[in-house]
Design brief:
The protein has a domain of 72 residues. By secondary structure, it is mainly alpha-helical. The chain is built from two helices and no strands. It is 93% helix and 0% strand. The termini are far apart. It is elongated, with a radius of gyration of 49 Å.
Length: 130
């Protein structure tokens, strides 16, 4: 008996909701269908636009990849050649600098020796004669 009354209440509630919805809907069925159709067409157009952009992006990435594959090896080879050329050009300059550095080191040692000798000589001359 309770189940029967529950079913009656649900049925009355559904019927009331259906009629209330029909009475308060601002659009007619034809208007709702037209609105849904327009929304569907808009979504389809945007989906097609996204597909077009994705295809364009895919093609651009493929082109960039091909360009990189073709150009990077030549750039690396040019860079290696430049480094080799620079290394060869700098060898005589480095050798010259090393030679001058050794000369300067020899001069510095001579100056240190002369300074040490000068100190010894000045101590001998400054000591009183006995």
């Amino acid at each position: 008996m309770k189940l029967k009354r529950l079913a009656q209440g649900v049925a009355i509630g559904l019927a009331s909701g259906f009629f209330a919805t029909l009475a308060t809907t601002p659009k007619s069925g034809a208007d709702v269908r037209a609105s849904l159709k327009a929304t569907s067409q808009n979504v389809k157009a945007k989906t097609d636009d996204v597909k077009l952009h994705a295809t364009t992006l895919k093609n651009s990435v493929a082109q960039l990849n091909d360009t990189a594959k073709n150009n990077i090896p030549s750039i690396v080879n040019d860079l290696k050649a430049s480094v080799t050329t620079f290394t060869e050009e700098i060898k005589p300059i480095a050798a010259n600098l090393q030679h001058h550095a050794q000369q300067m080191q020899g001069i510095a040692q001579e100056l240190q020796q002369e300074a040490a000798n000068f100190k010894k000589d000045s101590k001998k001359t400054s000591e009183p004669a006995s």
